[in-house]
Design a protein that fits this description.
Blueprint (H helix, E strand, L loop, with lengths): L1 H14 L20 H5 L13 H4 L9 E8 L4 H11 L3 H15 L9 E4 L4 H7 L3 H13 L8 E3 L11 H8 L3 E3 L2 H4 L3 E8 L4 H11 L5 E10 L3
Parallel strand pairs: 1-6, 2-5, 5-6
Antiparallel strand pairs: 3-4
Helix pairs in contact: 4-5, 5-7
Bound molecules: zinc ion.
Zinc ion binds next to helix 2.
């Protein structure tokens, strides 16, 4: 009998996400996807309260964005890495939505919340077909819910797959990211303050290329927000 119960439990765990995506502890009925204990311990950067923060500095001298911030620090084997892994490789788009919602709450009342349109960084069509989804879309959807700001996942397209950048020099890297994106619906962007979203920022070169494309549309302003960034510690 106990074995049967165990089988039922195992089966229901497959059907319903009863465990926290960060710590794997069982969730109670009031918790969704990430337990309240983990939510209280998000390794937040508070960069949205800090002018000239480390993420913003990545864009200095490259592209004139208004501001930039990340939600959490990415530490090896840490919470952000586990959650991003679920989102990116396991199809757990709910994780992106929860993180987007939570980050959106933090941004309320800041100049990031003044953005009029949220734009997730697009994947190249081939990559999106392989993965089945763009992990940034769910983040943008979550932020859109908290900030009550519309999001548009189709105004910009990635026209080339990003080549490996690890062995390239700084100049070649710069050339490589040029014309990576195309604004296919400039009329939806024109005159707007756009909040550009990515899951993780490292060198900032992909965001830089996308911001560059957006800023070629007349009278646009671009702010950048990502869920995770490397920890300086
Ligand atoms: Zn947890």
């Amino acid at each position: 009998m106990e074995r049967v119960r165990q089988h039922i439990r195992d089966f229901s765990h497959l059907v319903f996400p009863f465990n926290c995506y960060s710590c794997s502890q069982a969730l109670d009925e009031t918790e969704a996807h990430i337990c309240s204990n983990c939510r209280e311990r998000f390794p937040v950067t508070k960069y949205w309260e800090q002018k000239e923060n480390t993420v913003e500095k990545l864009f200095w001298g490259k592209v004139p964005i208004k501001q930039a911030a990340s939600f959490m620090f990415f530490i090896k084997d840490g919470m952000a890495q586990r959650l991003m892994h679920h989102l990116k490789y396991n199809g757990k788009t709910k994780v992106g939505e929860v993180l987007g919602q939570t980050f959106g709450q933090k941004l309320k009342g800041t100049s990031f919340a003044e953005a009029e349109l949220i734009v997730p960084i697009p994947l190249h069509i081939t990559r999106q077909k392989t993965r089945g989804y763009n992990q940034c879309d769910s983040i943008a959807a979550g932020m859109s819910q908290s900030l009550k700001t519309p999001y548009d996942a189709n105004a910009v397209e990635r026209i080339r797959a990003n080549e490996s950048q690890t062995k390239k020099g700084r100049y070649e890297r710069h050339i490589n990211v040029q014309e990576l994106f195309k604004v296919v619906h400039p009329e939806r962007i024109e005159g707007k303050h756009v909040l550009l979203i990515d899951d993780v920022v490292t060198t900032g070169s992909t965001l830089e290329a996308c911001a560059d494309a957006l800023l070629q549309v007349p009278n646009t302003t671009v702010s950048v927000a990502t869920i995770a960034c490397p920890s300086p510690y």
